[in-house]
C-alpha cells in the first residue's frame, strides 16, 4: 500500500514538473495584459492565470468585445457544468472568428488544468487572427500573420529546374554492403 502511494506521489510530482516546465509565465502575463486592454477593465491578478480564465466569463466578455454578439448568453454563477458551457460558447465563437481548430483548447484543458499552455497558445492565435480583421485597431498580441508571397517563374526556369538533382533525394554513389558484418555467424553442426 505504501509503495502505491509513493509511486502515485512521484507520478504527480513529475506531472506538476512537466506542467510548470512547459508553461511560460511571461506569455501568460502578456496574454492577460492583452485581454485587459481589449476589455478596458482589469482582471483579478491576485488569482493564478488559470483561475482568472477558468469559468469562461472573462473569455466570453472578451470575445464579445472583439466580435460583438459572438456569445449571446454568459453564465455568471452556477455549478461546474453550467460554467463549462461558457468555455464551449467561447470555443464556438473562436471558430467563427477564424481561429484554426488545431490552435483552440478543449474545455478540460482549462477547467481541469490539463493543458494550460494550450490555452495561452489559443489566445496568441486569437491575437494573430484579430490583426487580420480590417476593423480591428486594438493592441497587438503575438506575431502578425504572413501575407501571400507569390513567385512567378518563366517556362525556361521551370524546365531548367527539372534537370537539377535535388540533394533531398539523397545519393547512393559508392554505397555497398562490403565489410558489414552484423551479429555472430550461425554455427550449424551436423
Automatic annotation (TrEMBL):
<dbReference type="InterPro" id="IPR000557">
    <property type="entry name" value="Calponin_repeat"/>
</dbReference>
<dbReference type="Pfam" id="PF00307">
    <property type="entry name" value="CH"/>
</dbReference>
<dbReference type="InterPro" id="IPR003096">
    <property type="entry name" value="SM22_calponin"/>
</dbReference>
<dbReference type="GO" id="GO:0007015">
    <property type="term" value="P:actin filament organization"/>
</dbReference>
<protein>
    <recommendedName>
        <fullName>Transgelin</fullName>
    </recommendedName>
</protein>
<dbReference type="GO" id="GO:0015629">
    <property type="term" value="C:actin cytoskeleton"/>
</dbReference>
<dbReference type="GO" id="GO:0051015">
    <property type="term" value="F:actin filament binding"/>
</dbReference>
<comment type="similarity">
    <text>Belongs to the calponin family.</text>
</comment>
<dbReference type="Pfam" id="PF00402">
    <property type="entry name" value="Calponin"/>
</dbReference>
<dbReference type="InterPro" id="IPR001715">
    <property type="entry name" value="CH_dom"/>
</dbReference>
<dbReference type="InterPro" id="IPR050606">
    <property type="entry name" value="Calponin-like"/>
</dbReference>
<dbReference type="InterPro" id="IPR036872">
    <property type="entry name" value="CH_dom_sf"/>
</dbReference>
<feature type="domain" description="Calponin-homology (CH)">
    <location>
        <begin position="25"/>
        <end position="130"/>
    </location>
</feature>
Amino acid at each position: 500500500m505504501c509503495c502505491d502511494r509513493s509511486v502515485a506521489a512521484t507520478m504527480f510530482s513529475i506531472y506538476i514538473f512537466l506542467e510548470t516546465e512547459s508553461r511560460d509565465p511571461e506569455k501568460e502575463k502578456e496574454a492577460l495584459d492583452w485581454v485587459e486592454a481589449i476589455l478596458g477593465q482589469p482582471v483579478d491578478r491576485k488569482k493564478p492565470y488559470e483561475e482568472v480564465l477558468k469559468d469562461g466569463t472573462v473569455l466570453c466578455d472578451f470575445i464579445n468585445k472583439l466580435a460583438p454578439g459572438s456569445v449571446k448568453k454568459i453564465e455568471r454563477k452556477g455549478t461546474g457544468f453550467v460554467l463549462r458551457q461558457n468555455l464551449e460558447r467561447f470555443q464556438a465563437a473562436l471558430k467563427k472568428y477564424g481561429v484554426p481548430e488545431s490552435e483552440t483548447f478543449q474545455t478540460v484543458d482549462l477547467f481541469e488544468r490539463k493543458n494550460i499552455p494550450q490555452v495561452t497558445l489559443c489566445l496568441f492565435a486569437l491575437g494573430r487572427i484579430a490583426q487580420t480583421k480590417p476593423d480591428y485597431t486594438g493592441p497587438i498580441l503575438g506575431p502578425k500573420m504572413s501575407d501571400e508571397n507569390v513567385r512567378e517563374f518563366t517556362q525556361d526556369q521551370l524546365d531548367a529546374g527539372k534537370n537539377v538533382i535535388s540533394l533531398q533525394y539523397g545519393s547512393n554513389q559508392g554505397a555497398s554492403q562490403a565489410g558489414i558484418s552484423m551479429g555472430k555467424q550461425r554455427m550449424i553442426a551436423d
